[in-house]
Design a protein that fits this description.
Elements (H helix, E strand, L loop, with lengths): L1 E6 L4 H13 L5 E10 L5 H5 L7 H23 L5 E10 L1 H12 L3 E6 L5 H6 L2 H8 L4 E5 L9 E6 L11 H10 L2 E8 L6 H14 L5 E7 L3 H11 L4 E6 L4 H6 L4 H7 L4 E5 L4
Pfam families: Usp
Family: Belongs to the universal stress protein A family.
Protein name: Universal stress protein
Length: 282
């Protein structure tokens, strides 16, 4: 059985991510934990003053979210009665990533699913979006679903290796499971932005990846000092994939500001589902 955390803010992008997750895990025994997080700064004293005086603090802060979550859970149960799915729900009032980390530990979560609208800006560059905060602060694989994207069988997977990413065995189990289930081809894009790799190193890396997937075709392409977003876009036009995969590395605030890591660019520009694996140091 898989334990999967479905984050929701009751928006269309969340609903779409849930729909994708259900189709992605068809014919599997799964427990889906629907979770809504009421962020601390979103409630003011004015909100509490207009609440029903007979309500306790928990009801005043979380009552509306609990009602919406109950309705969402009932709708999903009805839609997927033929699947071996179990639905549970949780509402928390906490710092966003703290609440998610607690859920990951308590429910033994193996995958987090969230929707994104790909918005960018100066504030997001510094403080990062909710999705990027999850990726950087929660030690669990994350499946990011861009708004409006419908499920397609991942017959081809675009595996991205950024300049600071070394292919290693640990942390790859989610990818191995997906490739086996869908019999996917793997298209590796090695991005050597500002980092020199000898041809023999690339050749050896290709062989190591192929060992993981002996029954699946693995193609390997090297791009030296090219804009990663542009590389991905062009490759997607010539060899369309239905899923992107990359590994995330833990970084401090200052490291994110001064690093050349392309994680934010890739997440915010992605037009297909993106699976973020955890690196070996997580």
């Amino acid at each position: 059985m898989k334990n999967i955390l479905l984050l929701t803010d009751f928006s269309s992008k969340s609903d779409n991510a849930h729909k994708y997750a259900m189709q992605f895990h068809k014919w599997q025994q799964c427990t889906f934990y629907l979770m809504s997080i009421q962020k601390i700064w979103e409630y003011t004293m004015d909100d509490l003053m207009v609440a029903n005086p007979k309500d306790d603090l928990n009801t005043a802060l979380l009552g509306d979210n609990k009602s919406k979550l109950k309705a969402t859970k009932a709708r999903l149960r009805k839609q997927y009665t033929g699947e071996d799915f179990t639905f549970k729900s949780s509402v928390d009032y906490d710092v966003f990533t703290d609440a998610i980390n607690q859920a990951v530990n308590e429910y033994e979560i193996e995958l987090i699913v969230c929707g994104t609208d790909g918005k960018t800006g100066v504030v997001e560059t510094i403080f990062s979006s909710h999705t990027l905060r999850i990726i950087r602060k929660v030690d669990c694989p994350v499946l990011v679903i861009p708004e409006g994207v419908e499920f397609q069988k991942p017959s081809s997977i675009q595996y991205l290796l950024d300049y600071d990413d070394v292919f290693e065995m640990c942390g790859k189990e989610p990818l191995i499971q997906i490739v086996r289930k869908f019999k996917s081809n793997i298209d590796v894009l090695r991005l050597t932005f500002g980092y020199d790799m000898e041809p023999r190193e690339c050749e050896q890396e290709h062989k190591e990846i192929q060992k993981f997937f002996p029954s699946n075709p693995v193609t390997y392409h090297t791009y030296i000092d090219q804009d990663p977003v542009r590389v991905i876009q062009v490759r997607q036009q010539t060899a369309p994939a239905q899923l992107q995969v990359l590994s995330a590395h833990k970084q401090t605030f200052l490291e994110r500001i001064f690093s050349n890591s392309h994680l934010s660019q890739i997440v915010n520009s992605s037009t297909i589902p993106l699976l973020i694996l955890r690196d070996c140091n997580s």
